[in-house]
Design a protein that fits this description.
With 335 residues, the protein is α/β, with parallel strands linked by helices. It is 33% helix and 21% strand. The protein has ten helices and 15 strands. The strands form three sheets. Strands 1, 10, 11, 12, 13, 14 and 15 form a seven-stranded mixed sheet that branches. The relative contact order is 0.15. GO terms for molecular function: transferase activity.
């Protein structure tokens, strides 16, 4: 399979093309059941034959923990990047071996544009100290891509230069320029403890989750209330992504996420990883994700997050499943 062509086709899907998405998901499953040795052995252990799977709903999802213990790839290749999960000291890191960085860039660019329009001309300010201080961050790769694509002279990364960032945000606001402030949760909290702003309505302040052991955990509602007051904005946006995926979902507020058309969320019984829950807002379960951009690793991931899918198709992250390690881009606990 030409996997770059597959990703090009995937990101060209529209939300209305449900049948096209199903065809591509089954195409990915058949390919990965042959070419991904870890996934193939997992299917064998379940006693599931690829020939028995005729619907997306029947596809087994690979537990995300396999990325910590195995090389989850389709075939043997020299990766252009190895993304490592973040976490507190002593945790085992996930490793995502990326055959093509272009596939990742194609996915995160298309997803952003679907949700927010072109990044070109928008200043991108990335307050991501914990990610900048380590190697192998997929979030840094994405932020670098946004900064480069923005073409804006004021775009850049920040560690702890809060005064410099404060002055720049005011300068951009005074000039009426569009900008994105992308930050890890603890760093945004550190910033608003020192400075208060009244940003314009079109400003995007986006948290990526993550306290990294620097602060006590809090609910999303508590976090967003503090950040709304500190930045003087009506909504705090959020990004949902992880090392093991090459696509992201976004929320414009209230913690309700929308996926791009090539990425879908399903819920499973929290006590039975092989049982999908019927559709319905009342259901809460483990979050399963189909990410067609993951064609070189595994497109079907059973995460360790607990969630709910709302009637309009958006999903909410309610916390971590019992026993799951708290790490990465989702450290917020359920309300």
């Amino acid at each position: 399979m030409d996997t770059e062509d597959f990703v090009r086709r995937a990101v060209a899907l529209t939300a209305e093309d449900g049948q096209g998405w199903k065809r591509m998901a089954l195409e990915a499953f058949r390919y990965q059941s042959r070419e991904n040795a870890v996934y193939r052995r997992y299917l064998e252990a379940l006693g599931r034959s690829a020939g028995e799977v005729e619907r997306v709903e029947d596809i087994p999802f690979l537990p995300i923990a396999f990325f910590k213990t195995h090389r989850v790839t389709c075939g043997d290749f020299e990766p252009q990047a190895v993304f490592l999960s973040s976490g507190t000291t002593g945790m085992t890191q996930s490793r995502h071996y990326v055959r093509s960085l272009e596939n990742y860039r194609r996915s995160f660019t298309a997803s952003w544009e679907l949700h927010y329009g072109p990044i070109r001309g928008r200043a991108v300010l990335a307050l991501l100290p914990s990610y900048l201080e380590r190697e192998g961050s997929s979030l840094i790769e994405m932020a670098e891509g946004f900064i480069r694509q923005s073409g804006h002279a004021e775009s850049g990364f920040y560690l702890y230069q809060h005064r410099e960032l404060y002055d720049k945000l005011n300068r951009l606001a005074d000039r009426g320029e569009r900008f994105l402030l992308l930050g890890v949760s603890f760093a945004l909290l550190d910033f608003v403890e020192k400075y208060r702003l009244q940003l314009p309505e079109e400003a995007i302040v986006m948290e990526t989750g993550g306290m990294k052991g620097r602060r006590e955990e809090m609910t999303r509602e508590q976090l967003h209330a503090i950040l709304r007051e500190g930045f003087g904005v009506e909504h705090i946006h959020s990004e949902y992504g992880m090392t093991e995926l090459l696509s992201q979902a976004y929320s414009r507020g209230e913690g309700l996420y929308t996926t791009p058309p090539w990425m879908r969320v399903m819920l499973r019984d929290a006590t039975d990883p092989l049982s999908l829950l019927p559709e319905g807002f009342q259901a809460r379960g483990g979050i399963n994700i189909v990410d067609l951009a993951n064609i070189d690793s595994c497109c079907f991931i059973a995460t360790e997050d607990l969630g709910a899918i709302h009637p309009d198709g958006r999903f909410e992250v309610l916390g971590r499943l019992n026993g799951a390690e708290v790490r990465g881009c989702n450290l917020l606990v359920a309300k």
